Amino acid sequence: MSEDGIRFIRNEEFWIVLGPFVVIFCLVLCLVFCRMVFDYLQNQNRPFSEVVVMLPVATIFGSVIAFISHVLSGPLLLCWVFVLLRRLGRIPLGLLLAITPVLGFLTAIVFGHISVSLSDDDYTGLTLQRFLMAWAFDVAAVALYWIPLRNYRSNPQAAA
């Protein structure tokens, strides 16, 4: 079998598309783990087996909520990355972080509607606290998403 007909896909190209979802899952895992350990340390009457059993369940539930809340901002981030690659041939962190306020705004709005549908509370609209928390989460997600791509060039011959 000749290699002429086979197109090899580099790891960075997989990361460009799937990276935001992996980063969101890892951030949710860290947040849930820290929250459960902190909760266990505050209330040591709770058996540790509850923490061990609830960690995967809470991580999956939190990840589903995070994925749904990023339903608008995830594709926007991917489009912005493809525009940067098309125009500049690389992904500068400053320009990638420039879109995070918009991502945080979209995430906060969608999360607000999800949290209202999960509870019986009335939708209070976009609050500054909800926006800042979503923006901080998106800044962390974008920064972690960028780390493997910092040396990526869309045209390898131009980099040489």
CA gyration radius, whole angstroms: 19 Å
The count of strands amounts to: 0
Main sheet summary: none
Could you say which structural class the secondary elements and strand pairing correspond to?
mainly alpha
How many structural domains are formed by the residues? 1
Low-confidence stretches: 1-9
On the 0 to 100 scale, the average pLDDT is: 80
Write down the secondary-structure element order: HHHHHHH
Oligomerization category of the chains in this entry: single chain
Strand composition percent: under 5%
Report, as a whole number of angstroms, the end-to-end distance. Answer: 29 Å
Number of helices: 7
- Overall, the morphology is globular
How much helix is in the residues? over 70%
Give descriptors for this structure.
disordered N terminus; about 160 residues; about 75% helix
What does this structure look like?
It is a single chain. This protein is mostly helical and 160 residues long. It has one domain (11-151). The chain is 73% helix and 0% strand. It has helices at 11-42, 48-69, 73-88, 93-97, 100-118, 128-146, 156-159. The longest helix has 32 residues, at 11-42. The protein starts with 10 loop residues before the first helix and ends with a helix.
